[in-house]
Amino acid sequence: SKLTNLGHLEMTWRSRMHFHPLLVRILHKSRLRYYGKPEKKVDMPYQAYFEVADSSGMMSMVLWSSLCPEWYHSMKVGTVLLLEEYAIKDSYPFKTLPTPGDSQMKRFATIEISLNVRNPPTKISIIPEEMVKPEWGLPEVKYRFITRSELDNLPHNHSCDVIGLVTFVGRAERVRKREHGEDFWLYRWAHAVDGTSDQPFILELFATSQPDVFEHIHPMTYLVCTQMRVVRNISEHPSSPIYLTTSNESQIFITGWHKGQPYTKDTKVKNFIQWTKSQSEVRQIKKTVIGGYYPFPRPPDDLSKY
Predict the structure, then answer these.
(1) Where does residue 73 rank: exposed (0-12), middle (13-18), buried (19+ CB within 10 A)?
(2) Is residue 163 domain-shared with residue 245, that is, in the same domain?
């Protein structure tokens, strides 16, 4: 059928009611958001953002309501979609935006694709990777992997991807989303090493929409975390180490989940795998720890500094 592209949509969307089908690749995926409230009667109050791209650039795509439980887990980073009967809307100005792996890619930020169960009912098709043709011009998923030795030179809030061998994983802890609210974020601390430094990555991992991965992070697993943010509290705690925290678009993968993921082609991932092959498993296991309370950043030695 006759296809359109994201660049053409941006130029013509106000003058059209119906749009030609779109062929796009998912480059980023947000966690699933629940927006239900007791006073509002919405059957499936779920929403998820994706960043999708074709040869013309990248745009946000929003999955709404009952389409979320049906499609969210099937729509992975790297998945190619054929979209028909979708809606175009002005972009929501306050949502978070991931940092693209390809800094040259054009971003269409004024509008977003809306996929809904009605008005109009969207038709979604997943194209198997072996059927994707080079002439479609769909961009590959690109990453921003860093090594532990590079981390110390990165600025606060820098976006990056990491891979490491888990040496410590703490128990799951909770923190209030708002000071007097009843909702909590669930998170755990982890350490991972990659052989490029004596220091580990210190990772603050909030529960994303991957409970099956979050609950099974163990020492000696290969851990990949994407779209992490650098946190440096040098002004408040000059001696406190740098750590990484998850963002709204972070994805976490452990041993058993890596097969077929786009990052397996990345050079730094391949270098890490080569390093692990040279390590003694017995020696690494002796350095691993699981569970317990992990106070971080560490409190000051002197109570008067609080």
Answers:
(1) exposed
(2) yes
